[in-house]
Amino acid sequence: NAGKSTLLAVLSAARPKIANYPFTTLVPNLGVCEMDFRTTVFADVPGLLEGAHEGHGLGHAFLRHISRCRVLLHLLDGTSPDPIGDYKAIQLELELFNPALLDKPQVIAYNKIDLPDSGDYWEFVREYLVDEEGVDPQRLFPVSAVTGRGVREVVGAVRRVLDELGPAEVAPETNALNLTSVPRRFAPEARIDKFEIEPDPQQLPGGSRLFYIRGEAVERFAQMTNWDYYEAVKRFQRVLEVSGINAALREAGAGRRAGVLLSGLGV
User: Fold this and answer.
1) What pLDDT does 84 receive?
2) Residue 52 and residue 48: Cα distance in Å, rounded?
């Protein structure tokens, strides 16, 4: 919920899904930034879960996307209760997956600077990252993806880093696989609030009912959730509420003792 998709929409003509809950982005989105007679490609990579390096959620897939980027633009949510802790958590996941990822140059954008809860702590976060984490102050910016404040400066910083790196070395590669069936693809336009509730015609012992939730985006979100973490489970429950799934279950007659299945998971 840091605002990655909003920033991509401001930087480019891309129109990724934007919503007010965490992990809205389920597949990477590319956007071409055209500014000052120059183009730069940005990738909005889905957010990482704690334990992503172990494959929790779809961590390995997302971290592989990051491996193909030359510069990492690390977006911090200024309204988070602990933006410094968020920064450290992401850095740790990168290191545990592949220490070489930490060698990639990073530009850090402290987002939502237009909000009081964020702007009041910007100087403290900036000082800590520079003094304690060794972040280059020339690569650290306060931004507002909503208003556009600081966005041009961030793009300029990313381009300066790319210029320092020089032309990219292109290595031939192939993703050819010996497939025996067409893999199921996730539709980028799928929405969390597009779902169906299907009651099982058979009653469970004790008279309770079983309900199935079917929806491509919410099933994908369930796959991304690390059920070993209490905060991740609470986040998933919040998504069920804001997407209208809980209300739809109640309307369908699901009581407190009803069983609910989503992507084969009991939720």
Assistant:
1) 93
2) 6
Q: Considering the chain, what is the average pLDDT of its residues?
A: 79
Residue type, 91: Q
Which amino acid, 46? P
CA distance 230 to 169: 43
| DSSP single-letter state for residue 148 | -
d(CA 58, CA 53): 9
Q: How high is the mean pLDDT in each 10-residue block of the chain (267 residues)?
A: 80 61 56 89 71 48 74 91 89 81 92 87 94 95 92 95 87 58 57 84 71 85 73 80 88 79 60
Q: Measuring CA to CA, how many Å separate 44 from each of 17, 103, 177?
A: 11, 20, 26
The one-character DSSP state at 103 is: G
Quote the pTM value: 0.59
| Inter-axis angle of helices 122-131 and 83-97, nearest 10 | 40
Write the pLDDT tens digit of every residue in 231-247. 777 888 888 888 888 88
Locate 167 and state its tokens.
């032309």
How far, rounded to the nearest angstrom, does the alpha carbon of residue 114 sit from its chain's CA centroid? Answer: 21
| Structural tokens at position 96 | 């545990």
Residue 30, strand partner residues: 43
> Both tokens of residue 237?
């429950």
Angle at 152 between CA 164 and CA 122, to 5 degrees: 95
